[in-house]
UniProtKB/TrEMBL annotation:
One of its GO terms (molecular function) is DNA-3-methyladenine glycosylase activity. Pfam families: Adenine_glyco. The keyword Zinc applies. Keywords: Metal-binding, Zinc. The keyword Metal-binding applies. This is Dna-3-methyladenine glycosylase. One of its GO terms (biological process) is base-excision repair. Zn(2+) binds at residues 5, 19, 178, 182. It comes from the Bacteria. InterPro entries: Adenine_glyco, DNA-3mA_glycosylase, DNA_glycosylase.
Amino acid sequence: MEKICNWSQNGHQNMAQYHDNEWGFAVLDETKTFESMILEIMQAGLSWQTILNKRPAFRQAFSNYTIEKIAQYNDYDVKQLISNKEIIRNKRKIEAIISNAQLLSLLHVEEAFSLNAYLWSFFDDKPLIMNYHTQADMQGFTSISSTISRELKKQGFKFLGPTIVQSWLEALGIINSHLTACPVKQQCENFFSKNYTL
């Protein structure tokens, strides 16, 4: 049985810090949820190490992840982002992020919709605890991530396939996919119980 999530043990400090202090810790904040969505979309087809290395640049490029500001981006802003060598210059990803911000900003106003609350609602507002003993046991996507991906697509959200959604839910702590023997797994459970359980 592996005792720690070995994807975090690549010798890079920011990867270990992300695993130990963020990944799997429950998030209930809308802006942080959207930030995580941006990072997960940008990560598609790339390494997570690449995303963490560029994380400060993403924050600056995307207006500190302020949803309403991103929703106002126009063609000029898209061109600026595509020319920004500090981030991932993928037009399809960039346009999907802006489109998602526009949709979410509209839903905030018209329906008092919370993307974070929406995601948690699929799990009765408590984390789903997975029991993975080795990295090989982990799944790229699950039936629930496929369902959520399909429902998000119906809402109009883009570039959120089952694999991206699975990774996103894990990052937000909605699904706790730390290996069973990983000490951070229990820390995530304790964090949720202390901060969010009524």
